[in-house]
Amino acid sequence: MEYVDLRSDTVTKPTPEMREAMAEAEVGDDVYMDDPTVNQLQIKAAEMLGKEDSLFVPSGTMGNLLALLVHCQRGDEVIVGDKSHIYMNEAGGMSALGGIQPHPVKNQADGTLLLDDILASIQTEDVHHTITRLICLENTQNVCGGIPLSVEYTQAVGEIAHENNLSLHIDGARIFNAATALNVSVKELVQPADSVMFCLSKGLVAPVGSMLVGTHKFINRARHLRKMLGGGMRQVGVLAAAGLISLEKMSTRLGQDHARAKKLYEGLKQVQGLNLDAGTLSTNMVYFDLADEVKLSVDEIMVEMKKRAVLIDWAGPRRFRLVTHYWVDDAGVEKTVKAFGEIFSLR
Ligand SMILES: Cc1ncc(COP(=O)(O)O)c(C=O)c1O
Known about the structure:
By secondary structure, the protein is of the alpha/beta class.
């Protein structure tokens, strides 16, 4: 059975062009920094984000952890969104492995942290307090609807960070989606950040890998810590080859995924029993809640959808998130709306 898989953009399999490039990739030992394909990828990623240097890492989680470990010492504090991936979904790595304390700040419905909340969260110098070192933003903000944070907002947070002697890290797992939605360059969007992590393995379709970008000094330290965490990889040009295609080709087509998310949203609005999030749809994610009258559980709905060859994932006890990506075409969107219509009925 051919499934429409809307569980996440992480499910994207490499394209035939990627597989070919992977098979033919020139490789070397990347721990010796001898892999020409990885080196090329790292130069390209740094260039595209307007930073000095970059590092290929196995996952977004490792990229974020490395950033936190480079920016902070044990006992330091990091300001993070209370709905951020770093805070909610990275297994507490910053505390467990770095002795770093998160200071969660409420994510507003539009994905931002209020500037006043950030300012109020910066610790004053006092023997009792931790030392605030870093602010983290997430762009797009996944749990708030895949919302992009604007250039102006990022600049305002960057100013607060730098005026207070802090650094700014962006978890930009989907920063290319954000830049596409805002119609700005990624470089402009991340200009105020001291470091950025972005994923090749989500909307950019590569099978594995993320990039961490920052200054040469920052990346040299991150490379050392990546080795410490067991993330020093060897002939990893086979993966970097797919990543190059992500940057060169996949980064410019994300508007198609956003248009399909919109089409999906419009279709699902016609289905009874689904309360779609209003006003958040701007990239590749569609979130909705089940209306009170719906008696089916999220698990039962997932089973019913699977019977109709559509894979979806829950985002809460009464909530779903559907994500469009390279492998979801218009027919897939129509099939999904039809399947929901069969289970619930159209308005
Ligand atoms: C916003 C965000 N940041 C970071 C990550 C972590 O990426 P990875 O799954 O590659 O560790 C994810 C993964 O879904 C994410 O959505």
